[in-house]
Known about the structure:
By secondary structure, this protein is α/β, with parallel strands linked by helices.
Amino acid sequence: MRILFIRHGDPDYGRDSLTERGIHEAQLLREYLKDRELGDIYVSPLGRAQKTAEIVLAGRSVRTETKAWLREFDINVEAVRDEEMRQFYPEIPEGAAVNRRCAWDIVPAMLWSDPLLIDNENWRQSRISRASNMAELYDRVTGAFDELLKEHGYHRQGKLYRVERASHDTITLFCHLGVSSVLLAHLNNLSPFVIPQFTCPAPSALTEVVSEERQQGIAMFRTLYLGATPHLTLAGEQPSGSARFVECYDDEGRH
């Protein structure tokens, strides 16, 4: 089977919708995918994903289903003490509010100070996991995802997917950077902190995963491409940079 992850277009987070650029990206993606079979289509409940799906699927006679578990991760890291945070974020002025949604935007010094973060077996014991709702949220989202795969014949048992009904089904997920990164990590038995730290699919990007039944009755899921933007390249457009940080520290932009 095939799983197609589609990140929403360039977001207007204030309105939970798309910017004009994001609308244009989704329109280019619609043209690129016009002859592509998308199979069963599932959409995050958040407005930016809903709007992207609406534009991309315009003119198709398809049914979509909104899945609450596809919404973006919102990790609450309340229990990490201010003084511990400032150890890794010295630029935060004394007395200023500390960002508690740091679980995906971890500075290198903090990431490598806790080896458990990238340990596929023990990430739940990391400081950030223990200080947040990370494990609870992860279990809820990946559990719902595995139930969906089971409906298509692929039943997760431990770290393996048992093939109960081999299929060439396709499912398409209109969602977000964080949640798709976690699902990719889950498919490959990686810590959920790894992929969002080291990859950054642009808005409207495509990521495609395909099952491979190398042993009869056991499937692995292999990523064919991650964060591809051919619809933008063919139109001579550059991807927008939502979720990116500055290339050089003295550059203007997101730090």
